[in-house]
């Protein structure tokens, strides 16, 4: 009897050693595809990872246009679970290609409907920023010259050789300013306006950094007017080497003079992490993430419950009426507008 029990125990031990044991739970990875300008505080990332027992992986692809192209080329077999960073200049293209899955986040109740451009809720708004003319205050005060208040002012002889803009073929704010002029003067009039700018000796550079940090008088350049962002004046205060009582620059926010860029996030079609992807979208729309946006990406929250830093509240001037171009118009005409501008202005 004892030998039989010993024999059975030995067989059981052998079988037990051969039977696969359940694997320990592994932490899942959620991949978010973004443009190269994406930035968020480590504490914000850590908070989400701990709460949902997940590892976040950020896949930076390039500028917005490049990222959209990669998302389209990988449709059906996505490179990531979520794509953040498509803006209203590329939104229609992304939607027409069907790269996103629809998701009605409960956080949409806290977002101004003006930002919800996609009624199918495939791409949900995360942040916005306004591209506006900026000017150095002291330059105009010392010369007793009124700062510009409209696009027409820029072609007045008083403002000759005072403006730097960016090439719309190579610069995102440059493209935004081009679209502002198209919205303001119409497709039949915007090139005439640009010809007038050229006659008034506009300075055209390839990128925002050159315009703001080399050509702009605030940085030691020669031009007191530059195409930049509505957020630039408060950032001049925030990042000044010495405490400032007032912003040294200001943004022109008269009706129709600024172009509003809205950035969106969406769940990529074919993701294997739909549940976690929904949670990340909700998190991006929550105050915890939204309040972290301005000082990292220099854009602003769409959640009305997010609280801005006092400096933004004091010095940020948000335009009430921005350039009016629909995402579909932009998608259909963007390349033609750039080509026509290049042919007329640079050649």
How many domains?
Answer: 2
Report the radius of gyration as a whole number of Å.
26 Å
How many helices?
14
Sheet bearing the most strands, described? Answer: 11 strands, mixed
What is the rounded distance between the termini?
102 Å
Unreliable segments (pLDDT under 50, ≥5 consecutive)? 1-8, 10-24
Strand content: 15-25%
The tally of beta strands, per DSSP, is 11
Average the pLDDT over all residues and give the rounded result. Answer: 91
| Percent helix range | 25-40%
What labels describe this entry?
18% strand, D-Maltodextrin-Binding Protein, domain 2, 11 strands, 347 residues, disordered N terminus
Topology:
Elements: H1 2-18, E1 28-34, H2 42-52, E2 54-60, H3 64-73, E3 82-87, H4 91-96, E4 100-101, E5 124-136, H5 137-142, E6 163-166, H6 172-185, H7 190-199, E7 203-205, H8 208-215, E8 225-229, H9 232-238, E9 249-251, E10 259-268, H10 274-285, H11 287-290, H12 294-297, E11 300-301, H13 310-315, H14 327-346
Describe what you observe in this structure:
The chain has helices at 2-18, 42-52, 64-73, 91-96, 137-142, 172-185, 190-199, 208-215, 232-238, 274-285, 287-290, 294-297, 310-315, 327-346, and strands at 28-34, 54-60, 82-87, 100-101, 124-136, 163-166, 203-205, 225-229, 249-251, 259-268, 300-301. It is α/β, with parallel strands linked by helices and 347 residues long. The chain has 2 domains: 28-128 and 262-315, D-Maltodextrin-Binding Protein, domain 2 (3-Layer(aba) Sandwich), CATH 3.40.190; 130-259 and 319-346, D-Maltodextrin-Binding Protein, domain 2. Helix 6 (172-185) packs across helix 7 (190-199) and helix 7 runs parallel beside helix 14. The longest helix is centred in the last third of the chain and has 20 residues, at 327-346. The protein is globular. The protein starts with a helix and ends with a helix.
């Amino acid at each position: 009897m004892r030998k039989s029990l010993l024999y059975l125990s030995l067989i059981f031990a052998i079988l037990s050693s051969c039977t696969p044991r359940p694997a320990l739970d592994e932490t899942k990875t959620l991949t978010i595809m973004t443009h190269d300008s994406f930035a968020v505080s480590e504490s914000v990332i850590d908070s989400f990872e701990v709460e949902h027992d997940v590892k976040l992986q950020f896949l930076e692809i390039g500028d917005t246009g490049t990222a959209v192209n990669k998302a389209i080329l990988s449709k059906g077999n996505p490179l990531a679970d979520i794509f953040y960073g498509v803006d209203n200049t590329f939104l229609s293209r992304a939607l027409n290609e069907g790269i996103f899955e629809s998701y009605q986040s409960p956080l949409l109740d806290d977002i101004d409907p003006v930002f919800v451009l996609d009624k199918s809720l495939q791409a949900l708004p995360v942040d916005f920023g306004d591209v506006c003319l900026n000017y150095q205050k002291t330059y105009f005060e010392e010369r007793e010259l009124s700062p510009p208040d409209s696009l027409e002012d820029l072609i007045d002889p008083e403002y000759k050789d005072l403006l730097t803009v960016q090439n719309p073929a190579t610069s995102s704010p440059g493209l935004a300013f081009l679209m502002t002029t198209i919205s303001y003067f119409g497709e039949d009039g915007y090139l005439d306006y640009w010809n007038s700018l050229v006659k008034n000796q506009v300075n055209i550079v390839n990128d925002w950094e050159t315009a703001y940090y080399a050509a702009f008088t605030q940085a030691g350049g020669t031009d007191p007017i530059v195409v930049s962002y509505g957020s630039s004046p408060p950032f001049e205060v925030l990042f000044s080497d010495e405490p400032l009582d007032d912003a040294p620059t200001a943004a022109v926010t008269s009706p129709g003079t600024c172009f509003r860029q809205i950035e969106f996030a969406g769940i990529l079609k074919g993701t294997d992490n739909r549940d976690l992807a929904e949670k990340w979208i909700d998190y991006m729309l929550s105050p915890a993430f939204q309040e972290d946006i301005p000082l990292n990406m220099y854009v602003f929250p769409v959640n009305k419950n997010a609280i801005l830093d006092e400096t933004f509240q004091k010095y940020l001037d948000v335009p009430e009426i921005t350039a009016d171009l629909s995402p579909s118009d932009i998608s259909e005409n963007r390349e033609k507008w750039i080509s026509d501008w290049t042919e007329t202005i640079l050649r």
